[in-house]
Amino acid sequence: MNRLRRLLENDGTVVSAWCGITDRYYLEAVAGCSFDAVTLEMQHGLQTESSIISGIADVAKSGKPVIVRVPVRRFELASKALDMGAHAVIAPMINTVEDARSFAAYMKYPPNGERSHGATQAVHVLGCKSVVEYLASADADTMAIAMIETVEAVNNAEAILDVDGIDGILIGPSDLSISYLNSPVPDPFGEATIGIIGDLATMARAKNKLAAIFCLTAEKVDLAHNLGFRLMAVGMDTLYIRDGCETMLSRMTFR
Ligand code: 3PY
Ligand code: MG
Of all protein residues, whose CA lies closest to atom 6 belonging to ligand 1? Predict the structure, then answer.
């Protein structure tokens, strides 16, 4: 149950796949690659309430932690993802302390929050002997990760990190740049935001909370790691497929 927490112990690093494609064979194949974890992406990906039910179970078979990113302010889906066996949930656009409190409330059981009882699939997927065993450590083992990706969120980041039940932050570098540049064209890790990104990692670490970030490329994962981030989600399905296909084709000598 605490697979993700264990990987992060002692300054450990987690590199997660980022999967919007719902196909079960595809997800098992990605989980079989050397990623440390797999994130199922509902906000902009094709994942749905029903696909995460099978997706969480399929990825869990690999022994790797499963993370779910829910759509903006769909905190009821955060509880649902946990009920299905997710190890962590990422909530986008957490801009205020109130957003963070609502998210945390859906992620933690009373007295820590307001999560409703009914961890159905989780008990089986996570190999618990009973629901009581699941309940004993669910709040401590699973992680509520708040996305910081606007100017407003950066201004409130310290207070968001201080909310009980928020276990870490994940930076969305594209939306962050859009917000800072006031333009729809993203410049992730660009000049306007790179200093802020580094400061957010330092702030989260100083508070003993997870510093996480989304990266499109392996080079950005290295950069983020040097800045102090310890969970990096990398790429997306189309990039995995394109890079795999193009690498194979480029090895052919006659073309
Ligand atoms: C962002 O960069 O804004 C993200 O949300 C990553 O998917
Ligand atoms: Mg975003």
Answer: 172
